[in-house]
Amino acid sequence: MNCQSCSEKMAELADARLDADTAAQVRAHIGGCAECSREFGEISRMLAALDGLPQSPPSHRLRAKVMGQIETEKLTLLDQAQFASSIRSAAGGRPDGRMAWQRLVVRAIGVCAVLAAGFALGERTATQRQLADLRVRVDTMGQLVEQSVLQKRTAGDRLETVLTAARSQVPDERVIDGLINSLAFDPSVNVRLNALSGLYRHSDQDVVRAGVLACLPRESNPLVQVSEIDFLVAAKAREAAPELRKLSLDEKADADVRDSAKRAIALL
Amino acid sequence: MLAVRDGDLDSMGELFERHHGPLFGYLTKLTGNRAAAEDISQVVFQRMLKYRHTYRDEGKFTAWMYHLGRRCAADHFRKSSSAPVAVDPADLADHPDEARSADESAVARDDHALLHRALGRLDRDDREVLLLSRLQELSFAEVAGILECSVGAARVRAHRALKELRDHYLQIQKEKHT
Ligand SMILES: [Zn+2]
């Protein structure tokens, strides 16, 4: 064995990755060659240092993101019918299987919602202020919410929380904030849809309409997008028109979503 | 992974728990940047999910994971090609784990920073082959498969990279003393 081929096998010798014969040959060469013996010492130390570099785990965000992706993927595998039935039960809806489920939700809850008679100009400014405020909260709370998503790890737990919140009759501020946050941030489509259905009851509040409107451009799932558009129509949220127009022209948006947006503009 | 491919997505969570640590460690050393390593790790698992149908029961799952890792890291470097890899030891410090850093002697910490700097001076290809060859879960044949070269070539390249690392290490040590 010459120095060159000995040298190339040193790392594997140090790792005990060589077969017995080759290992013996390399060792024999090192024993009789001062140069290779010195090099082997250095290489071994270098390898030990490299393997000994401390390794800290990644932040919790990585797990939250990957688990969120898995959760979302799982739900897209589920049949749409299953979505519909979960929505129906969340809404206490009518067992009318022939109706498209989005419409069903709109009727079941939209009708009992107390709708604002329309916006006076002054109110609209107030809404814009609330909307701006909400956007700031959405940004600064993003991380907090991700953490809370992680604390309630399974989508089932989060769904339970949202369903409980959705049953609340009283327009409690914290309940409404929770529902809007879930609609904005929850990685599970099912949880987001249920959060939205929980908001129908409170669609008379400016902050709720502003919240749903703020969620619409963030949303990427067509099912949720269509449901949000239906919500805005049911809530007669005329301030949604510019956003809807943008969406109806968005080439990247789903065709159903664009159609819904167009229909919504006509209805509003 | 076969279970995942066949639709059992809960197994994907288990695969994540079992393998994300070593992958993240490898990518941290490769990029010299924890945030980038986290981003790339996320993309790796995202692609596993997306391309699970293409997984073949040949070779090990870890080899496939590092193969994806290599692609994703290359994409990352291409996107941020204007910014060369600058290893900032502060970036790699053990922030979430202060207790362990406190245990480490100052000498060891200095030594680790020095080694990170030396790694940062290697060419990216050299750093890649060297770090892959240090992964306990991969054989040299698998490393060669990931790098799409012969086993002999992978061996020679890893060896050359290691020697280069040693030279950089000694060089930085000398710079520090003068
Ligand atoms: Zn020799």
Can you walk me through this structure?
The complex is a heterodimer of chains A (268) and B (178). Chain A is an all-alpha fold and 268 residues long. Chain A has helices at 3-14, 20-32, 34-51, 60-77, 80-91, 101-110, 121-151, 155-167, 173-185, 189-199, 206-215, 222-234, 241-249, 255-267. Chain A folds into two domains: 3-51, no CATH class; 112-267, Leucine-rich Repeat Variant. In chain A, helix 5 (80-91) packs parallel to helix 10. Chain B is an all-alpha fold. Chain B is globular and about 60 Å long. The A-B interface holds A 7-12, 17, 42-43, 46-47, 49-51, 53-59, 61-63, 65-67, 69-70, 73-74, 77 and B 7, 9, 12-13, 16, 20-21, 24-25, 28-29, 34, 37-38, 41-42, 45-46, 49, 94-97, 100-101, 104, 111-112, 115-116, 130, 133-134, 139-140, 155-156, 158-159, 162-163, 165-166, 169. The site of zinc ion (ZN) has 6 residues of chain A, from helix 1 and helix 3. Residues 3, 6, 29, 33, 35-36 of chain A line the site of zinc ion.
**Which term fits the overall shape of chain B?**
globular
Could you say which small molecules are bound to this protein?
zinc ion
Overall pLDDT of chain B, averaged? 84
- Report the strand count of chain A: 0
User: What would you report as the Rg of chain A, rounded to the nearest angstrom?
Assistant: 29 Å
Topology order of chain A in helix (H) and strand (E) letters: HHHHHHHHHHHHHH
Largest interface, with counts of residues having CB < 8 Å to the other chain, equals: A-B, 32 and 44 residues
What would you call the shape of chain A?
elongated
Which class of secondary structure composition applies to the elements of chain B?
mainly alpha
Q: Which spans of chain B of ≥5 residues are poorly predicted at pLDDT below 50?
A: 94-101
Beta-strand percentage range of chain A: under 5%
Assembly of the depicted chains: heterodimer
Give the end-to-end Cα distance of chain B, rounded to a whole number of Å: 53 Å
Proportion of residues in helical segments of chain B: over 70%
